[in-house]
Amino acid sequence: MSTRASHRRKESPPPARLGMRGCAVFALAVILALWLLTLSILSHAQIPAAAHQYRQAIARETAFRFGVTGPVPVIAAQIMQESKFNPLARSPVGAQGLMQFMPATAAWAGEIAIPGPVQPLNPAWSIRAGVWYDRWLYDRVKTARTECDRWAFVLSSYNGGLGYVYKRQKLSAAPGDWATTGAINPGIHPANQKENAHYPRQILGRWQPLFTSWGRPVRFPCN
């Protein structure tokens, strides 16, 4: 009896070791499943169905203003950020349409660049005017370390005004570096500063990857 009991005690550790190994395998399987689920969720982040009808217009206007290699994904991502491709979108402060033009800015764009009636709620007009305005800002951002920095400054200008970008650059030790310069508050309300610093990141970092099949993206982060 003592021999059999001793024999059983000697055999008992292996099942215990197998159990621990099984738990480890199970834990790894759970981690792998969660990782795959995360990848699946990320990979299924989709372009809104409404966006596809505007793809050709975005590509055409971007090519017209920036050349055939113009960054279509940036423009599409900007519309995503502004209106989620809702042509009738209206903000609490009065911005309208796909590119969320304020009335005064829309009137100015119509006066100097876009012939005909000012129609910010017309998708074709909004895309045409929005891409033109991006180009207008792009031509006036002279100090930028990389193409990414330049576009970040352009987007910051679109959101908060070119004058504030110039003020930030004057205050910055690295005026061509958007990550450094964009964090500087040039004298605006902290909430507006936070929104303005967030705006280029949302477009270049969050939304642009959805549209990389539409054309040449701008590399982000800026480095």
From TrEMBL:
<feature type="domain" description="Transglycosylase SLT">
    <location>
        <begin position="73"/>
        <end position="178"/>
    </location>
</feature>
<dbReference type="InterPro" id="IPR023346">
    <property type="entry name" value="Lysozyme-like_dom_sf"/>
</dbReference>
<comment type="similarity">
    <text>Belongs to the transglycosylase Slt family.</text>
</comment>
<dbReference type="Pfam" id="PF01464">
    <property type="entry name" value="SLT"/>
</dbReference>
<dbReference type="InterPro" id="IPR008258">
    <property type="entry name" value="Transglycosylase_SLT_dom_1"/>
</dbReference>
<protein>
    <submittedName>
        <fullName>Soluble lytic murein transglycosylase-like protein</fullName>
    </submittedName>
</protein>
